[in-house]
Structures are given as structure tokens and as C-alpha cells.
Structure to design on (768 residues):
């Protein structure tokens, strides 16, 4: 099992790159070699949680390859996906005289990957970078496709770039140390692929949920591979989200409102996406596109992997809360000419981008998707 | 004369864009129309010097086109090409709920163009932008080609992106209000094109220097057109500076050392490039590539347009100064695997990128290119 290793390619002409998925990949020097230039060196950028677990292993591999390297260890958490943290990265790169050929290696979850990718996009107008995702969420979603960004107090991922890595190395062994809550958050994006374009995968996830949450490596390998295959296919066809790629944002506009409204770091991204996906499903139901049975299947699967299905209150009443959601959603990047474009469902496995929902319908869906009591206002979501 | 209008194209496939050069262009709504989406609106970003002169004219044109717009007025100066100023732009965009389809219009010189271009590159992962350069330097160089950036205390243009505008509108009438010192600084980049690839243009500039500095519009139109034609041709062949485009950096590595060493805003970019170009010429002479007569022609032309030809001292002795230059030059983006790659001259009109010069040769060239007395340490360069 430990030699399990699959490879996918994100096909983007001269910017194509491989995704390696398997066990023990951090130490597989031959996978790193083609994507590093030992003359130029590398910097491993990680956080205080991941550094004690995997930094030495990565540095040992770089040493084996004769690639000089140093590391930058950032604080851990969505609240550090900020302007200030990005600047500390630039300071470190310049103080260490990194050149534009120095490879930036993002070792961590989605926050590290997004921030380091954006740092690489901007450093001397573009340095090479490698994604080494160590969470399920980053392995199945954020490390692939070149979306990089930092947050702004007025909106998530508002400052960023489309900038592709040279290599994605998803070592499934790093999931061994992932807290249960983050494991669940990652499943949110796995389930997303089933919901938007693969009903058979959704059914398979319903069958294998327990085994996946017990971190059966063979099952995880299948789930990560299938998710990355979907992502790679969509990104290759629509790198800059002119069309189809927007489907990958199912639940994200509602979810970003939750994340921003609750303050970064309170709800995990995957948790917010789960509750947001339920709201998108309820809105789809209002439009007559989705039946009650599908809604129940979606909620049941989220619940089985330990994800919240009810959104938090952001104000004293459900209506005021819904109005706050709508206000926050209007800041979303998918807004065009003032019109909210949402990803909705016409069935399990069939997502569409739609501007059909008016404000009244959105307010109603948010209220229908809220927790019954306001007590969740300041309480973290259910954990498994 | 006032209807004089020429157009060039920067040929980059689907990212191609026109450069309009002429008089009265700010008010020519038909030139703007194809590149704006009135539904999405626009924001004009300028500085405190340019705003009172040209902001109303641009806003009037946008109003004529039915394009809602607001403006952001930044402080003027290279020292504001910073992280902090960039953040104030993002704050304004988000507070005004700008979408990713909002067009950012850079109205000003090189600092505004570089900073606004980088803001556009990053805002919601890429918003459209238009360059309206109002200085000679930005009309002939920085507004064309998509190099955008901000400075870092440890190096100029260290944080940035390659990001092309949708349109460059070089209105020669805006040069009427340009201070003489900035006019001279712009000539530095005009002369550069002659030096690196067009000996006939260099000779023409020698003949027309007086008329250009008196701002004869027909001569300026020729100089700006010829400069933009060179830039557009080079950029179309090598957008991301993998090769030929590096030649456009003649004098810039030495020049950046002057700008950084003296503190941003003390020497103008064009002034530093002039003194830096003389150092590059002296180094070329040491290598036996350039004769004394060519050096004298270069210096004479710089002097005739009011540019400094001697570099400032950055330390108490010429040797210590040269060592400081070298240290600053090592931070340059053109450094690769620790080797300084410099643009040198094998004749007037013939530049090459070279790693042939060792540290000793560079130290010697810097010292040969310094002002005779240390008094210039804190004195601005000669003005016309």
C-alpha cells in the first residue's frame, strides 16, 4: 500500500504540470528532481502546525537533491492569509536574496498554498512554485488549478492571481496527522465534485463515507484521485473561470458570507461550503429544480462525514441574518454588473451557473438553511 | 497638428492591444469606447499632481460614454510606489464595491502606471486596466509591455506581475505641463532605444535634441512613436523577458542601485538610468567593445537633454561607493545563480546581455562613472 502512486496532468500547454498522489511521496526525490533547479535553490514555506511534522522530511529530500534551501514558518490559520503575512514572506525572500529562479515550496493546507502561490506569482514578477498539500481540502481542491490569493477584511480571496504551480505532490501519509474537523472540511470539497458533475462518485461516497473518515488509504487514494481528475479536467478547459470553472464554486458564495460574517478562522472553509451548499440546494428546490429527496441525501452525506448543514446566525433574527448574508454575498467575485450569479443544482451531479434567483428567493433560502436557534452565533460548528 | 494621431499594436494574440499616440486623445471618446464596459464602471487612479490637470477631462469622457466612474487620488512620488499605497487602492476598490469587471484607469506617470497595473493584476485575480501615461517616460516605456510592480525597501520593482493593459492612450498634450526635469528623465528611455537597437534613431535624436526639449509636438510624436514601436516589437517577441526583452534594461541595473542607494524619490528613474547607462558604456569600453568616441557621443546627448552622466557617491570613498553599488546590484532581478547579467554595448545601436564582466571590472566601471566629488551625495542631479 505504501508504494501506491498515481499521476494526473493538468493540461495547460507550456504551463502543464503533474499531480502525484500517493503514499510516502515527500521522500521520493525522483518526483521532485525534474521540477527543481539546484543552482537556484528553494524555500519551504509552511506553518507552525505542519513544520514539526513534515518540514524536516522535505528539507532532507531537497538536501538529497543537492538543492540549497531554507524555510519560513508562518502562524497557522485562515486569519493569517493576509496582507501582513504575505509581506513577511517577501521580507524573508529578499533578506535571503532569493532570485526569481528560486522555487517556493508551499507545505501545508489551503491557506499556505493560496498565500505561497500568490507570493510566487508576485515575487520578482513570478517565481516557480510547488504545491505540497498536507490537508484533504488542499489535496483535492485548492492546490490544483492555480487560484492563489489572500483575504481582505472586506472579502475573501479578493487579492490574488491565476498562477500555476510546477508540480503538485499530494502525499496521503500527511493525512494521518490531520485533525478530524479538518478531515471533514476536506470531504466537503470531495462531495462537491459528485454534486456538480459525477452522480456515480456521489453514490460511491455515500457508500464509502465511513471508510474514508477512518482514513483507509486505498479509499482516500481513490477519492483524491477522482477529485483531482475532475478539477484538472475543468481547469484545463477553463483556466481563468470564463465559464465552466465557476461550477466549482458550488456553495462558495453562501460559504464566503459565512466565513466573512463569522470572522476568518471561526468556521473552516469546508464547513462553510457545506452549509452554503445546503442553502444553494434549498434555493434550487425553490426554483423547482431539485426535489426534497435530493436535499435529504445531500444533508445526510454531509452529516455522516461530520459537517454542519445549518448556517450560523449573523444577526438577531433570521431575516436580519439573511439580509446580512445577502450583503456579504454581493461582495463576491462572481457578482457581475450587480447581478449575483450562483451555482445551483438541477439534480445530484448536475450544477449550473444561474442568475435566476432574485433577492427575495435568496433571502428565503438563507432563512430556510439557518440553524433553528441563534445560539450557534458564536459556537463552532458540530465536530465529529 | 492637434489632430495628429498614430496607432500601434502590441501583438500578443488574445491579449493584443492598441497604443494611440497623438494630441487631444483624452477627450476622444471613440478611442476609449471599445475598451470600456459602461455596465461595469471604471475607476480613475491618479496622483495629486496630475488630478488638477487632467482628471476632469478623463471623467468627462467617461461620462460622455455613460460609464459610471469614481477617482482615487494618491500622493505623488516614487516613494509611494509601495505596499501601503497599493493597499489603499484595494481598500477604495472594495469600499466602492468594484467588481472584477471594473476597469482601472491609470492616469499619470510611471509610478501610477506600475502601481495601478499591479493593482489590476491582483484585484479579484485580474481586472481590466487602461494606461493613460502623462509623462514622457511612461509614454515611451513603462505604459507599454505589461510590466507592473511596486517597490520593496530592499529592491525596486521586486513585487509585481506581467499584466497587459487593454489600451494605452498617450496624449502628447499632457507633456505641456511636464516639469523640465521629468521631460529630461523621459528622454533617457527614448535615447535607450537608439542605443540598444537603432543607430539611425540615435543620430536623429542628436540632431533633434533641442527641438524635442522645446516640446515640438511633431518631433515628440515621432520620438514617442518610434520608441513605442521598438518596445511593442520587443514585447511581442518576448513578453516575459526570457531573452531579448532584457536588452531594454540597459543602464537599469546600475540605475536601480542609484535609486535604491539614494532613497526612492531622490533621483528620478530616468536620471539614474542615464548615469547607469554611462557606467554600462564604460564597462563595455573596458571589455574592448566600445570606443572612447562612442562614450563621448552618449554622454554628450545625455548632457544636451539635461541628464546627469556621473553617478552619485553612496559612501565616503569611490571604492566603498563602488562596493555599495555592487551590493545593491546583486539584489537585481536579473541576477541568476548569483551571476550578474548586465546589458552592455558592442556599439551604438547594438546591445547584448552579458555575464562576462567580473566583480573587479564592475567596481572599476562604477568608479570611472562616479562624479569627481562626493558633494553630490545628497544633492539632486543637474537640472536643465
Amino acid at each position: 500500500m505504501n508504494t501506491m502512486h498515481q499521476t494526473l496532468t493538468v493540461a495547460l500547454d507550456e504551463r502543464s504540470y503533474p499531480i502525484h498522489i500517493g503514499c510516502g511521496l515527500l521522500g521520493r526525490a525522483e518526483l521532485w528532481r525534474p521540477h527543481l533547479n539546484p543552482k537556484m535553490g528553494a524555500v519551504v514555506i509552511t506553518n507552525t502546525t505542519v513544520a514539526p511534522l513534515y518540514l524536516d522530511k522535505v528539507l532532507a529530500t531537497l538536501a538529497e537533491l543537492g538543492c540549497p534551501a531554507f524555510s519560513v514558518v508562518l502562524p497557522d490559520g485562515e486569519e493569517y492569509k493576509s496582507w501582513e503575512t504575505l509581506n513577511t514572506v517577501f521580507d524573508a525572500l529578499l533578506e535571503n536574496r532569493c532570485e526569481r529562479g528560486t522555487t517556493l515550496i508551499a507545505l501545508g493546507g489551503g491557506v499556505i498554498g493560496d498565500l505561497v502561490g500568490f507570493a510566487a506569482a508576485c515575487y520578482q514578477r513570478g517565481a516557480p512554485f510547488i504545491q505540497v498539500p498536507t490537508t484533504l481540502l488542499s489535496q483535492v481542491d485548492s492546490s490544483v488549478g492555480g487560484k492563489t490569493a489572500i483575504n481582505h477584511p472586506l472579502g475573501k480571496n479578493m487579492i490574488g492571481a491565476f498562477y500555476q504551480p510546477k508540480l503538485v505532490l499530494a502525499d496521503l501519509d500527511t493525512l494521518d496527522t490531520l485533525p478530524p474537523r479538518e478531515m471533514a472540511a476536506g470531504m466537503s470539497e470531495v462531495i462537491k465534485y459528485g454534486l456538480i458533475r459525477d452522480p456515480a462518485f456521489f453514490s460511491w461516497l455515500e457508500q464509502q463515507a465511513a471508510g474514508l473518515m477512518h482514513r483507509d488509504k486505498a479509499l482516500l487514494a481513490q477519492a483524491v484521485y477522482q477529485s483531482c481528475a475532475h478539477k484538472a479536467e475543468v481547469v484545463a478547459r477553463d483556466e481563468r473561470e470564463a465559464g465552466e470553472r465557476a461550477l466549482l464554486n458550488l456553495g462558495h458564495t453562501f460559504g464566503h458570507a459565512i466565513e466573512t460574517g463569522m470572522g476568518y478562522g471561526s468556521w473552516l472553509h469546508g464547513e462553510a461550503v457545506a452549509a452554503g451548499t445546503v442553502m444553494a440546494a434549498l434555493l434550487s428546490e425553490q426554483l423547482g429544480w431539485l426535489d426534497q429527496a435530493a436535499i435529504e441525501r445531500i444533508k445526510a452525506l454531509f452529516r455522516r462525514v461530520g459537517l454542519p448543514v445549518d448556517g450560523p446566525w449573523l444577526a438577531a433574527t433570521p431575516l436580519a441574518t439573511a439580509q446580512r448574508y445577502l450583503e456579504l454575498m454581493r461582495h463576491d467575485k462572481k457578482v457581475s454588473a450587480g447581478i449575483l450569479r450562483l451555482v445551483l443544482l438541477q439534480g445530484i451531479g448536475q450544477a449550473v451557473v444561474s442568475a435566476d434567483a432574485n433577492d427575495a428567493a435568496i433571502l428565503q433560502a438563507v432563512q430556510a438553511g439557518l440553524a433553528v436557534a441563534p445560539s450557534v452565533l458564536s459556537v463552532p460548528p458540530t465536530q465529529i
About this structure: Chain A has a mean pLDDT of 94. The longest strand of chain A covers residues 155-162. Chain A has two domains: 5-177, 180-378.
